[in-house]
Amino acid sequence: MSERVAIIGVGWVGYRPSTPEVSYKELTYEAAVKAYADAGVNPRRDVDSFITVAEDFIEGTSIFDEYVPDQLGAVLKPVHTIGGDGLHGLATAHMLIRTGQSEIVVVEGHSKASNVVTLPEVTAYAQDPIINRPLGLNTDFIAGMEMNRYLFETGTTLEQCAAVLVKNRRNALRNPLAPYGADLTLDEVLAGPPLAWPLGRYEAAKHADGAIVIVLASEERARSLCDKPVWVIGVGWCNGAPSLESRVWGDVPYIQKAADMAYRQAGIRQPHLAIDFAELDDTYAYKELQHMEALGFCRPGEAGMLIEEGATEPDGEMPVNVSGGSLGMGNLLDANGLARALEVVLQLRGEAGQRQLDEVEVGLAQSWRGVPTTSGAVAILSN
Amino acid sequence: MTSKIKVFPGTPLREVDFKEGKILYRHDEMNGQYAWDTGIGIGSYLAALKEGVLLGSYCRSCRRTVVPPRTVCEWCFRPMNSYIPLKDTGTVNTFSLCYITWDLKRIKEPEISAVIEIDGASPLHGIMHKLGEVDPEDVHIGMRVQAVWKPADEREGAITDILYFKPIKEG
Predict the structure, then answer these.
(1) Is residue B79 part of a domain?
(2) Which residues contact A133 (CB under 8 A, 6 or more apart)?
(3) Which residues of A touch B34 (CB under 8 A)?
(4) Beta carbons of A70 and B72 less than 8 angstroms apart
(5) Which residues in chain A have their CB less than 8 angstroms from residue B40's CB?
(6) Which residues have CB under 8 Å from A217's CB, separation 6+?
(7) Rounded Cα distance, B113 and A325, in Å
(8) Which tens digits make up the pLDDT trace of A71-110?
(9) Share of chain B above pLDDT 90, in %
(10) Is residue A220 in some structural domain?
(11) Which helix (H) or strand (E) holds A6?
């Protein structure tokens, strides 16, 4: 059994609005080759278990496990697919190593969102088929209602939500992985068309294609293979009430619970002091503020002020989404959590190029599975 | 056992109960549309089918020729080294006589699914297709077969550009 688990290799492809020249298998293969080269492992010889995160409805093929092994080098090896976010996959890899079941585990997530012609309809299939879906609403209405209640309860303003978009898309300009970098003003964002008022069209992340592969190892293997291991010091996940009728609308207690689980493992009592930077779910702009509060970076209603003060800018006290987040890099569906974790790894290794933060030791990655879910996960990493 | 029971407990349901709205249920049809990028490996395969050619790919380290072609060797995880046009003849590895269609209709003349190991590909590498112009009684593992193609001007770069495989008359 290994007490400590490290990320020893990362690989990625994308992110781009479409990738017509390659199949999802070829996209994933490219990311896997990079991750294995980075980790110095041969998947056929060294890797004990493989995990993919994917949703059958999004892939368009059911029992997606069957389509995974060849592009990862996992034929005739233990493989399973999780219908969850990338951080759920990371948590599973962590458990496989902690229990002693495996020493080296690979986690893979990809998005071929461009291939889903009727993505809004497919997304609507996450709504309750009997009492919600017959109303025929675009699933983004759930984000609009949540945002409305969040603003009502906390006094957060439309300007503060728009400021998240301005910050993240500007951050994306310094990230070569990000296709949606832009230099926008608050007025331009606020004058944009509505999506599900109070949510504006620009405040929902556009989709992107991409693949991310992460290699994890037990402490012993990590020390022998890797000179820059990034330690997984805490992971947590949680689901809230699924019902739209009786869920908490202004707050996200499941993120708070997931964070508590991760903080407990990491021995963190004051997250705003212990954590140097964070990559948070921002698939809708207001979510970044809501998530900061649920993670205990500040009190409810204070995240809006922090963004106005610039505290979450790359040079602020608590940089959030220096990568550009989903607003800047694109919504990668269930690969979102791995994109968040990838940026934390690159920053902790000092390999984030132009957007590298100074003197960072502990970073937090957080994900949410998107509307209509109350499903979230948190990972805390340290160099 | 059940033959001893004269009356089963519970309320029986009849189709008319559903029609008359006495039983509440909700019917829905999914609008799931996808446009999969076929990519380099399978895309090349489909383009070759349009030309009436079966394309495989070769891995030098495993000395293996696979069909359909792929960009990565699933056994050694190295990139494939080259594409190789193969013959459109082969040998039945396994088959089944299917008396029920994909949408559950019973049929008298079976559809014959088969994996055909293509000549020139490595052993155990074949393509999944159907057999035709053959009496189901005569189909056997090890049977030699040949592709029957759609006319060239009707081929569109799809697996259905081959209609089926038929037996090769020996001698």
Answers:
(1) yes
(2) A124, A125, A127, B28
(3) 60, 115-117
(4) yes
(5) 21-23, 26
(6) A5, A6, A8, A39, A97, A103, A104, A105, A225, A226, A229
(7) 48
(8) 999 999 999 999 999 999 999 999 999 999 999 999 999 9
(9) 76
(10) yes
(11) strand A5-16
Q: What is the pLDDT of residue B166?
A: 98
pLDDT at B67: 96
Distance, CA of B32 to CA of A56 (rounded, Å): 11
Domains identified in chain A, total number:
1
Strand partners, B144: B91
Runs of H (alpha helix) within chain A: 24-39, 43-46, 56-59, 69-72, 86-98, 119-124, 141-154, 158-172, 186-190, 219-225, 253-266, 271-274, 285-294, 303-309, 325-329, 336-349
Can you tell me the distance from the alpha carbon of A318 to that of A167, in angstroms, rounded to the nearest whole number? 13
Q: Which residues of A touch B28 (CB under 8 A)?
A: 129, 133
* Phi and psi at residue B154, to the nearest 5°: -105, -5
Whether residue A130 and residue B26 make contact (CB cut-off 8 A), yes or no, is yes
- Among residues A261, A277, A247, A254, the alpha carbon closest in space to that of A341 is found at A277
Residue whose C-alpha is closest to residue A215's, from A314, A103, A300, A115: A103
Q: Residue A213: which domain range?
A: 5-117+207-225
Indicate whether A307 belongs to any domain: no
Which of A28, A29, A66 to mutate to probe the B interface, most B CBs <10 Å? A29
Radius of gyration of chain B measured on its C-alpha atoms:
23
| Of A252, A242, A247, A259, nearest in space to A373 by CA | A242
Phi, psi of A322 (to 5 degrees): -65, -20
Within a domain: B53: yes
Tokens of A148: 């409305």
Q: Are strands A5-16 and A79-82 parallel, antiparallel or unpaired?
A: unpaired
Tell whether B4 is covered by a domain.
no
B5 pLDDT tier (thresholds 50, 70, 90): confident
Q: Which residue of B77, B124, B125 to mutate against A (max A Cβ within 10 Å)? A: B77
Query: What is the pLDDT averaged over residues A170-183?
Result: 97
* A111 falls within a domain: yes
Instruction: Tell me the two tokens of residue B63.
Output: 């000395």
Q: CA Rg, chain A, in Å?
A: 19
- Dihedral (CA of A198, A368, A136, A251) sign: negative
Give the number of domains in chain B: 1
